[in-house]
Amino acid sequence: MAWFPAPLAGRAASLLSLLAIWEAAAWFAHSRLFPGAGAVLATLVDEAVHGDLLHHLGATLARVAVAFTLAMALGTAIGLAMGRSRAADTLLDSGVVLLLNLPALVIAVLLYVWLGLTEAAAIGAVTLSKLPTVVVTLREGARTLDRDLADMAESFHFGVWRTWRHVTLPQLAPFFLVASRTGLALIWKIVLVVELLGRPDGIGYAIQVFFQLFDVRRLIAYALAFVAVVLAVEWGVLQPLERRLARWRR
Amino acid sequence: MTVGVSVDIHEKSYPGHSGARPVTALRNLRACIAPSEFCVITGPSGCGKTTLLNIIAGLDRDFAGALSFEPSDRGAPRIGFVFQSPRLLPWRTVRENVTLVLARDADRMDLEGLLSDIGVADVADAYPAQLSGGMARRVALARAFAIAPDLLLMDEPFLSLDAAAADRLRGLLLRLVSTRPATVLFVTHDLAEAVELADRILVLSPAPGRVVAALPITVARTGRRDRDALAALRAELARIAGHPIGPKYSENSIFTAK
Q1: How many Å apart are CA B43 and CA B209, to the nearest integer?
Q2: Which of A213, B32, B94, B181 lies 20 to 30 Å from B14 when distance is taken between CA atoms?
């Protein structure tokens, strides 16, 4: 059963061996520009307690949350429409392909130019970068919806709400999960770029500052803090949700 | 309360895909089914039997003709549909699959009784993927009976089961109909099945389908397993349907010949 998490002990061992390799490499390099794991973790704690880490982390997480929600909601609506209506598919397909191939950096720069260095431009750029992959995934989901089950629901007078909740949504759930998972990974990378280009706070902004100061210790500490949050979401929310949704499978 | 059904379909056709000519599935099909009648519909493959059931169920409204239920003053009849495949929701348990069709919670009173009558009470908390084909079909049957149907539409519901399992399910169906009366429209290719179940057999022509023969079965159900009686009924059915029965035809069906 592939969706069971690796046992906790195995996961801890793999994490610890990574830290050990890091520490050993830093000891050999013996450079201010390659700090060891211990130094970085100490900085991480120190920045969280005395520094601005939590402020920047909070700003970035808020942007990720808003952009993620917007991209999932809009992308699901557009994807379902395109999957179910040939006219909508024809009309919107070239727009989706265009967005899919437009680099996130270009979208961000253009929106900053047009809307100024604003929060709306930042979140808009992240949302637009993520949107097409959600559309494409959910369109695939809508195309695979089972006509036989829809007929069954209609013949037993399920109505719109019961059909959506018990017949349609469970069929879309795997596609929704794939879109969320790839979405989260993509969005947080784009958010950092957008912050670096034009926001006065957030992990991306902090990384720019530390880059100019050549402060690699803080740079890695800030990045690690964000990675820890993403891992927590993956292990604490996405994987349990996936197991729950898959429990009917044999 | 059971209902009667009248259909008078002038024409039902499907649009052809990408420039192909439209296909006419039914033409001039007229039939009247009496309240509480067990009516079996049979005919060659592709003669529109499933189309006819979809029209009666209200799933297909795109046809020229008329459909009415009697008595007509009681509003839309409750229709239970048992499909060719069980069509259960794989992500819902057996009990959830059956309760989902009920409009109100109050209707759940007799549900446990129904589940045990049909022999699925023990698997009520299982998911459909854990069931055998026969059990899944029982659940589909339970779902159709859960709404206390006035009219039961069954589209080759016991197809692809082994003979013994299909036999048990036919017995179960007859018991259920005797205690929970409903008008039944049952589509099958299997002549022995048709003869065992029917009050009356309607034979459809090859596409576009229309009723070419109606054969009331007057022998009591208990006498229908007799080989001679069955053979006589088969011969009669074949004669009025205009299809010869010979060795090249399969044992159970007069319609599946090459």
Answers
A1: 8
A2: B32
Domain A52-245 has CATH 3.40.720.10: no
Nearest 5°: phi and psi at B235? -65, -45
**For residues B193 and B159, is the Cβ–Cβ distance under 8 A?**
no
Q: For A186-195, B15-24, B37-46, B219-228, which range has the lowest pLDDT when averaged over its residues?
A: B219-228
Report if residue B195 sits inside a domain. Answer: yes
Domain extent at residue B240: 1-78+151-157+182-258
Among B71, B66, B52, residue whose Cα is nearest residue B3 = B71
pLDDT score, position B193? 86
Distance of alpha carbon A150 from alpha carbon A157, whole angstroms? 10
Task: Tell me how far apart the alpha carbons of residues A245 and A184 are, in angstroms, rounded to a whole number.
Answer: 19
What percentage of chain B reaches a pLDDT higher than 90? 43
CA nearest A220: which of A237, A206, A234? Answer: A206
- ipTM for the complex shown: 0.84
DSSP H helices, chain B, are 49-57, 94-99, 111-118, 133-146, 163-179, 191-197, 227-241
CA distance A99 to A225: 30
Query: Considering CB atoms only, which of B57, B59, B129 is closest to A250?
Result: B129
In this structure, what token pair is assigned to residue A83?
């999957």
CATH code, domain with B189 = 3.40.50.300
Tell me the backbone φ, ψ of residue B111, rounded to 5 degrees: -60, -45
Q: Is the dihedral of CA A200, A201, A205, A206 positive or negative?
A: positive
- The number of domains in chain B is 1
Q: Which are the contacts of A159, defined by CB distance < 8 A and separation ≥ 6?
A: none
Judge whether B129 lies within some domain: no
Q: Which residues lie closer than 8 Å to B130 by C-beta, 6 or more apart?
A: A250, B123
Give B 227-246 residues with CB within 8 A of chain A: none
CA distances (Å), A225 to each of A42, A102, A222, in order?
A: 12, 29, 5
Report residue A242: phi and psi, to 5°: -65, -45
Sign of CA dihedral A55, A58, A59, A60: positive
| pLDDT tens per residue across span A97-124 | 999 999 999 999 999 999 999 999 999 9
pLDDT digits (tens, 9 = 90+) for B26-75: 999 999 999 999 999 988 888 888 999 999 999 988 899 999 898 777 77
Say which of B59, B85, B100 has its CB closest to residue A154. B59
pTM, full prediction? 0.79
Q: What are the structure tokens assigned to B227, written together?
A: 């080989």
- Rounded CA-CA distance A43/A218 in Å is 7
Residue B73 lies in a domain: yes
Give contacts of B85 with chain A, Cβ < 8 Å.
148
Nearest residue in chain B measured CA to CA from A173? B91
